[in-house]
Amino acid sequence: MTKMKIRYKILILFFQLLAFISCTNQDSPTDTPTTGELTISVDETYMPLVDSEITTFESIYNYAKVSVRFKTETDAFNDLMSDSVRLIIVPRKLNSEELKQFEKWEIVPKITKIAYDAIALIGSKDIKDTVYTIAKIKSLINNEIGNKSLKKTKIVFDNNNSSTIRFIKEKTGVTNFSTNCYALNSNKAVLDYVAKEKDCIGIIGVNWISDHDDTTNLSFLKNVKVLEIASDEKSEPLKPYQAYIAQKTYPLYREIYIISKEAYTGLGTGFTAFVASERGQRIVLKFGLVPATMPVRLVELINEDITN
Fold first, then answer.
1. Which numeric CATH code is attached to 117-253?
2. Crossing angle of helices 278-286/267-276, nearest 10°?
3. How many whole angstroms separate alpha carbon 99 and alpha carbon 1?
4. To 10 degrees, what angle do helices 278-286 and 47-60 make?
5. What pLDDT, on the 0 to 100 scale, is given for residue 164?
6. pTM of the predicted structure, to 2 decimals
7. Is residue 124 a contact partner of residue 155, using CB atoms and an 8 Å limit?
C-alpha cells in the first residue's frame, strides 16, 4: 500500500470521526438541572405564581434561563403534545388519549403535583347576593334563575379554551353557557372588568385576588367582592381561604401539576425540583394556594370575650 493511499484513508477516518462527534454533540443535552435554557408553557391562570417561581429560581441559579409562554390550558397541552415544549404547568393530568400518545413515544411522563388551587367567584361592588351554591351557579350560567335582576348579571370568564371554563362545566354539568356569559382574554382582564363595571360576576383563579401584602393570607383585594360558595343548601358557604382549600371543604378546589416529558435530568427536572422544594412551596403559600409537597399547619382562631 502506497503512502498516498494510507494518508487518504487516514483523512477519511479523520473526517468520519469529526462527523460522528458533531452528530453526537447535536443530540446531546445542552442543559443540566441548574444550567442552560428551558421553554415552558403554563396555564395563564397561574401567571402571578409562576412568574415569581421563575424569578426566584433564576436568582439562585445564574446560568439557568426559563422562558415561559402563558396560554390557555388547551394550548399548553397542544404545545406538549406537538413537541413545542417539554414541560407544562396545568390544573389537570394527562387524559387517556394523551397517555396513549406517550406510550407510542415510549416516554414515561413525569407528573408532579405542586399545589392545591381554587376557582373564585368575584362580584362587582354593587352585587348584593354574595352566597352561591353549585346548583345556583349552574342556574346562573344557564340563565335559569327566577330573579329577573340576576338574569341581567353578566358572567365573565378568562378565555373560551381556559381551564376555568372546563372546570366549571365539569362541576356544574353545564355544556353550553347562556348569552349573559362572556369570555375575555385573561384572568387580569376579568379582574379589571369586575372591578370597574356594575352587576357582574367574574370566575377567576384565586392567586389573582390574594393580597400578597397580607402575610396571614386572609385578605383578598378590596376592589372586588369575593363570593361565598357552598356545595348545597345544607352546607356552610365558604370563601377560598387556604385552610378551606387545604381541607378540601371549599367546593371549587383543584390541583396543579407540572407535566414533563424530559427524558434526561435537565433544566426541566431542576425547575420541577425547585418548585416542589421548601422554598418553592413557600412561594405557593404566599400566593394564596396550598403547597402539595410540604406539610401545612392549620391553626383555628376563636374570638372570645375574656372576662375575669
1. 3.40.190.10
2. 60
3. 59
4. 150
5. 94
6. 0.83
7. no
